[in-house]
Amino acid sequence: MEYLLEVKDLKTHFYTKKGVIKSVNGISYGLKRGQTLSIVGESGSGKSVSVLSIMRLLPTYAKVDGEIIFEGNNLLNYDDRKMKKIRGNHISMIFQDPMSSLNPTVKIGQQIMEPLLWHHKASKREARQKAIQMLTEVGIPSAKERFDQYPFEFSGGMRQRVMIAMALISEPELLIADEPTTSLDVTVQAQILQLIRKIQERRGTSVILITHNLAVATMVSDYIVVMYGGRIVEKATTKEFLKNPLHPYTLGLLNSTPILKSRKSLNPIPGQPPDLRKLKDVGCPFAKRCSKKMPRCEVENPPEIKVSNTHNVYCWLYV
Amino acid sequence: MLKYVVKRIGFIIIALFFVSLITFILIKSAPGNYVETERLLSQNVTDVTVPPEVKAAWEKAYHLDKPAWQQFLIFIANAARFEFGPSFQYPSTTIEKIIMRTFPISFRLAVMAIGLALIIGIPLGIIAAFKKDTIVDRIAILLSMIGTSLPNYVMAVFLIYILALELHLVPSIGWGEPKHYVLPVLSLAIGPIGSITRYMRASLVETLNREYIRVAWAKGGGFREVVLKHALRNSLIPLITVVGPQLAYLTVGTVFVENLFNIPGLGKFYATAAIYRDYPMVMGTTVFFATIVMLTNFIVDIIYGILDPRIRKRSMMEG
Questions:
Q1: Choosing among B206, B212, B308, which should be mutated to test the A contact, i.e. which has the most A CBs within 10 A?
Q2: Measured between beta carbons, which residues in chain A are less than 8 angstroms from residue B216?
Q3: Which CATH number covers residue B138?
């Protein structure tokens, strides 16, 4: 199957007064049409920055290198005007905090219509109809009345539904969801994930899901990418990932995920996530916390091990 | 809403009572009196003593022979009906008539100055916020700091020197023609230009950092959609709380400028009354100015509530 999005050797470095922060340091992955890819990692692993690099929503002191091939074109060669036509039209994004993602003084309906209006894809009347239809589709009752309400009249879960409606109204090929359920109640989390999956199946949208929750990732995605310290440590289809996790960090993540009814004790990974400013270019970023560390781990970059055509792990253990 | 309005008006009335009381006490305890000052200043005589029977008759005419507390009560009773009686200096007319004649002049000056300040300050603030931390921003901040720290009468002297004496663009003094407005309005506007620029910049910088602004960029908005539609709207609401009181203070604060340019506004009458110990005039104008300031603040709060849907809808729900 053809790739909708291919990220090749993506590097995002922030040039600050205190030094260069290499948030994303050479990652590659591909996303097929209609599929869901999850990027899993701790805070500071570079997972959010990697998708903000795709959207080009970073401050000016960030430098992005590599290739981002979307529908055959390298987005990194696009200027601001061309990027504007991509955002909210071909690639949409939902963010972590639905409470602050909506403008408090603008009516919900207006905000949902905006992607259509800004990209001149519909007249105001058509956009209104479509917005009401979207609100119904994401499960907001009495959508017609809700259209004219303000964000403060919605609960957190409802606001995230509004965000989803807003992101999908222009029928984008790719939806990026940056921790869409992190700030919601557990019961609402499941509903929102289900909603994303249902709409994705119906419309054939491809999804990149950013999460720190491995359980969430295995539940909804076809492909999983695990990031640590700005690099990918393991990537595989969800099936292979569950059957044969290999990287010590992946295993650590799995061991520190609680499973209901299991008597197995939790084994958290010792140590702290790395300080990206101090991270060296050579060596495995996880080496300092790894229980199976070998001398070469700190001085040589880990090799790419092909477990199968769709399963790669970056670790000296499997040479 | 109605309950709130009634409550606020009640507070204003109480505050006005205390303003009157304090002004009255201060006036009564100030040295000098009108009769002697008038002879000293206007008739240029060194012997300021007045025949006792003349003074007694004059005092009787203004209720000055009664005890102080009675004088105060008479003032309050009259002020409640917007009647301040004749002043010492202008016995043939009443203070309220003078106020009605001269206040529009001061008010018009203040409105023109605020209008000019908004026209210059808002765009300057937007540019500074959007070009934050660049040389453009630094220059805008520096200019606005000079504007806010220079008193308007100092500014007026500079302007007279440059625009009237050196460049001969406008007359330095006079009243009645549009060209006579230029210098007073400019000198009054400099301060508000500075504070509006700074406030606009701070408010917009804060708004631009909000999550919903990033969402708006992600929806494919450009400068017009994101900054002018989403951000500016929300930063202008707090600006009203600055502009309203500014207008009130400017109306009162035209005192120096009106004296400098010999403009027959209320400020000039106010200052002259203080010099001549024209106590009824001082009392009347002080209470009038206090009313203006408090009413403006009140109106600003109401407008703020109407513009912010969160406050508006909540107060409607409360009835």
A1: B212
A2: 103, 114
A3: 1.10.3720.10
Q: Give yes or no for A3 touching B (CB within 8 A).
A: no
Mean pLDDT is lowest, of A49-63, A249-263, B190-204, B214-228, for A249-263
> Measured between CB atoms, does B221 come within 8 Å of chain A?
yes
Q: What pTM did the predictor assign?
A: 0.81
Asked whether the beta carbons of residue A102 and residue B210 sit closer than 8 angstroms, the reply is no
E strands along A112-269, which residues?
Answer: 174-178, 206-211, 223-228, 231-237
pLDDT value of position B319: 42
Interface test with A, best of B215, B225, B306, B312 (most A CBs within 10 A): B215
Q: What is the CATH number of the domain that holds A16?
A: 3.40.50.300
| A119 close contact with B: CB closer than 8 A | yes
Structural tokens at position B124: 């300057």
| Structural domain span for residue A256 | 3-90+172-318
Whether the CB-CB separation of B188 and B147 falls below 8 Å is answered with: no
Q: How far is B244 from chain A (nearest CA, A)?
A: 21
Structure tokens at B40: 């000293």
| Minimum-distance CB partner of B234 among A88, A100, A103 | A103
Q: How far is A234 from A304, CA to CA, in rounded Å?
A: 9
B80 CB-near residues (< 8 Å, 6+ apart): none
Taking the C-alpha atoms of residue A303 and residue B274, their distance in angstroms, rounded to an integer, is: 88
Last residue within a domain, chosen from B55, B74, B95: B95
Other Cβ atoms less than 10 A from the Cβ of B256: the count is 18
Q: What is the ipTM of this complex?
A: 0.90
Chain B touched by A106 (CB under 8 Å): yes
Indicate yes or no: CB of A114 within 8 angstroms of CB of B216: yes
A304 occurs within a structural domain: yes
Kindly tell me the sign of the dihedral angle through the C-alpha atoms of B66, B68, B70, B75. positive
Indicate the helix (H) or strand (E) that contains A165: helix A156-168
Number of structural domains chain A divides into: 1
* In a shared domain, residues B32 and B124: no
Per-residue pLDDT of chain B (319 residues; tens, 9 = 90+): 788 889 999 999 999 999 999 999 998 888 777 777 777 776 666 676 777 887 788 888 888 888 888 889 988 988 888 888 888 888 888 999 999 999 999 899 999 999 999 999 999 999 999 888 889 999 989 989 988 888 888 888 888 898 888 888 888 777 878 888 889 999 999 999 999 999 999 999 999 999 999 999 999 999 999 998 999 988 988 888 888 888 888 887 778 888 888 888 888 888 888 888 888 899 999 999 999 889 988 988 888 888 888 777 766 555 4
Query: Does the pLDDT of residue A129 top 50, yes or no?
Result: yes
Q: What is the distance between the alpha carbons of residues B267 and B104, in angstroms, rounded to a whole number?
A: 11
Q: Do B220 and A84 touch (CB under 8 A)?
A: yes
List the domain range (segments joined by +) for residue B16. 11-95
* Nearest CB neighbour to B234, from listed A89, A105, A119: A105
A93 Cβ under 8 Å from any chain B Cβ: yes
Rounded CA gap, B156 and B254, in Å? Answer: 11
